Amino acid sequence: MTDEQIFSIETNCLSQITSLQAWHYRIIPKTILNDTLRVYSDEDYKQDGLEEELELLTGKKIINEKRIGAIQIQNLLKKYYPKNNSDSRLQNSYYSGDSDSFLNSLIIEAKSLKSSDIHIETYEESCRVRIRIDGLLIQRYMLEKNQYPALINKIKISSNLDIAEKRLPQDGRIFFENAGNKFDIRVSVLPTLYGEKIVLRLLSNEVTNIDISTLGFSDIDLKNYLEGIRKINGIVLISGPTGSGKTTTLYATLKILNKSTRNILTIEDPIEYTLEGVNQVQLKENIGLTFAAALRNFLRQDPDIIMLGEIRDSETAGMAIRAALTGHLVLSTIHTNSAWGTISRLIDMGVAPYLIANTLSTTVAQRLVRLLCSNCKKRESFDDSLYPAKFRPFDKVNFHYLPVGCSECYNTGYKSRKAVYEVIPIDEVLSDHIKSTQFDISDIMKKRGIKTLTENAFELFKTGQTSLEEIYSILVI
To answer: N or C: which end of the chain has fewer CB within 10 A?
Structure first.
């Protein structure tokens, strides 16, 4: 008897699970009755939390009917959820159908893949959907041209936007709820040559999985950072470009500082996570609620800790300094290339060096680095000529690893990301350097064992966790 004959499967229930979900969780739907879906699962697959995760994804009650052998599951998967390319888990599917069900499925799928953004875009003869995973956009669906307007209108209606306005950009928000899965989606609509492009930013409302010890801090950097945030006053600044993980670091910090004895206020754009016990304010510049205006009002709210989403201008910088001088701990982000570079950036904003020296507690720089997929990375001998022209390696590297791509990493060669940090605690010696605008502190950092952003990134490369290509831009800072 064949596997299909041994394991009775009702084909009408196969649509309840996507191909991606079936292969990822190693399951095959057996039957569906009302809202209950029974499945076969792989006996070698880790079972903890399987039913709960599937219930969130499908909106159905899941019953694990039977655990069967890996070979049998593999055969059933090949038959009922065939792949055109055995090395790809993210196939380029073609969509033609109802915009309501497609949009819901797309959002649930993107969320399950831990995607940060969904891009829906149209061109002269085609439309496509791409999702961002680990910082890289991956094409997921092709859409029929005549179905595109219905999908765009569905998104606009859901986010309270004007469906008749097709000439100007619009911004909106969707509160998504499905089978107990709740989160916010920020919507951006942009008119392009062939129609409107939409980007959906998936915002998590849950900080349970954020742990500062797993973000990427080295032991000494984590020690220095924790000492900085445990002071009762001063400014802690995190620098880096957009998409470098600064906000995640801030939320991990707030999670540590969030106590019933403290009054914590934040002004953010957008509010990416919600924290019970923290008073969070959404920036609304169109009505005058800017970072500076919010901070001015925060000082009347008897705060202990204030978090600013970003220091963008001299007014905000001045208010942050004032808040720190009056006995508050201020956490914020700023756009600079290095931790020490925040000093010159604040001076450029008009903040006097002596005020920076008296209030800045800890300055941090960070970047996000993609880690190589351990399943497919390829080892090769290394030649120093591959380094950037002016870079001098900190250690000899004889071998390095290259990204290849396989079914485990969506053919990108990378799987997951890790933050790389540079943490500088400001003490009396460094305060004197700031007051006298002496910006070369390399000798001081070496004596104290503080590694730069470049050194920490190089360490990931030397140990084979990432590729030279991935850290190349950090090596030339």
So the answer is: N
Contact status, residue 369 vs residue 475, Cβ threshold 8 Å = no
pLDDT (tens digit, 9 = 90+) per residue, 386-404?
999 889 999 999 999 999 9
Omega of the bond leading into 270 within 30 degrees of 0 (cis): yes
50-58 and 99-112 are packed helices; what angle lies between their axes, rounded to 10 degrees?
150
**Three-class SS of 274-342:** CCCCCEEEECEHHHCECHHHHHHHHCCCCCCEEEECCCCCHHHHHHHHHHHHCCCEEEEEECCCCCCHH
Q: Please state the separation of Cα 438 from the chain's center in Å.
A: 36
What value does the mean pLDDT of the chain take? Answer: 87
**CB-hemisphere CA count at 13 Å for 7?**
24
Residue with structure tokens 């899965």? Answer: 181
CB 395 within 8 A of CB 462: yes
Are the beta carbons of 321 and 351 closer than 8 angstroms? yes
What sign does the dihedral 423-425-429-434 (CA atoms) show? positive
| Rg of the chain (C-alpha set) | 25
Name the pTM for this structure.
0.72
216 φ, ψ (degrees, to nearest 5):
135, 0
Band the pLDDT of 54: cuts 50, 70, 90.
confident
User: In the numeric block, which tokens belong to residue 117?
Assistant: 């953004």
Q: Give per-residue pLDDT as tens, 331-368.
A: 999 999 889 999 999 999 999 999 999 999 999 999 99
Cβ-in-10-Å burial (0-12, 13-18, 19+) of 450 comes to buried
> What are the tens digits of pLDDT across the range 212-243?
988 999 999 999 999 999 999 999 999 998 88
Q: Phi and psi at residue 425, in whole multiples of 5°? A: -80, 135
* Nearest one of 185, 177, 181 to 56, comparing CA atoms: 181
**Closest CA relative to residue 185, chosen from 160, 167, 150, 211:** 160
**Rounded distance between C-alpha atoms, residue 59 and residue 104, angstroms:** 11
**Looking up tokens 């055995």, which residue turns up?**
86
| Cα 421 from Cα 246, distance rounded (Å) | 10
Query: Rounded to an integer, what distance in angstroms lies between the CA atom of residue 82 and that of residue 382?
Result: 39
